[in-house]
Structure formats: structure tokens, C-alpha cells
Specification:
By secondary structure, the chain is mostly helical. The protein has five helices and no strands. The longest helix is centred in the N-terminal third of the chain and has 27 residues.
Length: 109
């Protein structure tokens, strides 16, 4: 009895996965994202930040981050490069960190 119950559960699970997959592929082709309307703040390094950061993030996403000092942005950029594989050469990381700290960093009191 136990083995037939297990087989039945597998049948339901596989059927559910197949149905979900079919629905996902149909729905996926109908999804469109709204166009990006926000832009990164102007400043030295904006072109590099646009080319590197906006591959995965929207400009709105950057503007919603808490203001960090240079050390905080350095940690974020390092994490993006090392953990998430951001396509940013190490020799260009400093320029993006400077840009983020200047445009999205903590303001002096």
C-alpha cells in the first residue's frame, strides 16, 4: 500500500510540475515590462555605472538604496562582482564606487 501511495504522489507531483511548466511558458511570452523611465544621476563615472549596473538593476533600484559611504558602496560592488558575477573588471571598480558614493552616498551633515 505504501509503494502505491508513493507512486500516486509522484504522479501528482510530476503532473503538477508539467502543468505549471506549460502555464509558465504560455504566460512568459505575454509578459512585458514597462519601459525604464528613471535615469542614473549625472556625474563622473555615470557611463561606466550605466554599462555595468543597469544590466541587472534599474536606475530606480539604485535610487531606493540607503545612502552608503564609500566603504559601504565598496562592499556592495565587491559583492556584486564576486558573488553575483557582475561584469566589472577590478580595475574599474574604483570608478563605480566613487560614482555611487558621490551620487547615492551619505551627505555630509
Amino acid at each position: 500500500m505504501k509503494s502505491s501511495w508513493t507512486s500516486w504522489k509522484w504522479t501528482i507531483a510530476v503532473g503538477g510540475i508539467a502543468a505549471s511548466s506549460a502555464l509558465w511558458s504560455r504566460a512568459e511570452s505575454k509578459w512585458t515590462l514597462p519601459p525604464e523611465t528613471a535615469q542614473l544621476k549625472a556625474g563622473p563615472g555615470v557611463e561606466l555605472a550605466s554599462a555595468s549596473c543597469l544590466l541587472c538593476h534599474s536606475a530606480d533600484y539604485l535610487s531606493m538604496q540607503p545612502p552608503l559611504d564609500r566603504t559601504g558602496w565598496q562592499g556592495v560592488v565587491t559583492k556584486m562582482r564576486e558573488k553575483y558575477g557582475a561584469p566589472l573588471p577590478a580595475n574599474q571598480a574604483g570608478a563605480i564606487i566613487d560614482y555611487l558614493a558621490a551620487q547615492y552616498g551619505k551627505k555630509a551633515p
